[in-house]
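Pinned message: reference record for asparaginase
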Amino acid sequence: MTHLAPRTAPRRVVVISTGGTIASRWQGTGYAADASGGEVLAQAAVPDGVTVEVVDLFNVNSSSMTSARQLTLLRAVHEALADAGVAGVVVTHGTDTLEESAFFVDLHHDDPRPVVFTGAQRPLGAADGDGPGNVYDALQVAATVRDMGVLVVFDGTVHAARGTVKTRTLDPHPFADPSGPLVGRLGFGRVDIDRRPERPEALPVPTGTGALPRVDIVMHHCDADPLLLDAAVAAGARGIVLVATGAGNATPQFAEAIAAAVDRGVLVALTTRVHSGPVAEIYTGGGAVDLVAAGAVLTGTLRAGQARIAVLAALLADAAPRQQGALLRRLLGTPDLGQGQESASAA
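Predicted structure (tokens):
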């Protein structure tokens, strides 16, 4: 199966540079992003028939990514695609939080033209650098595919933004969807697409200019209690992701804390620390059965970083508080059974 643009389609690609390892150089004690997008592009070949325009948006290690920067990136992508002559967009990004930024853009992307995230595991100018090849592949994908949403292109593979996470810290093939198949592959000058990612209806780009909502992540472990969850609520969190064990299990104390948080209007999502597979209502005694009854929303196969992005997007959307739970379920692709969050206060 392929979803390629006609050969007569425009081939102008906008590259938005945000920093990361692909733009990093030695600083005396370690590597940090400091190279411009133009310097990054100068290292890479450009596919035949493709022209490139570079936007230097910001230049940070992706461990310093923030929700505010992701919102700036989203708006920059939409601004680039406002030009009908643009065939697609490539975003160069650090790998640490690429999965979160790509998913955030994907939740708000309603254009048939692709947005392709890529980066590198080795710094700019390294003899064995992977950045130039990844940029070439990303440009090729951005100039040819259509109706695929936001993609992650790395080491000759094409992934959907949704579900794709960094699974290896240093390997040149760092990204995978542990619960789903590849979208496609590249090689010998070809882009081979095998499937179209399933995506919910896109959200409008947020228009607000005020402070962004706080969304925290709390992990369950053998000796965990709700102290950190309660602290997040006390700190003003409007959303919380609980990273549970197994198929989404914690303790009765966590169920009580979630119920109290939901009563205060906090949006709570439930994921797992397990590598792959869905969260599911199987166990009581503080398991997912009780956590969902308390108001938590199951995240399907999405893990903590992307679950947090879904909660953030639901909070940023122009929806009444009582509708945010249903919206979150739609973004996560989980059934809306009319439970949990809709019982929250309208505060």
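Pinned by admin. Summary line: The chain has two domains: 12-193, 215-343.
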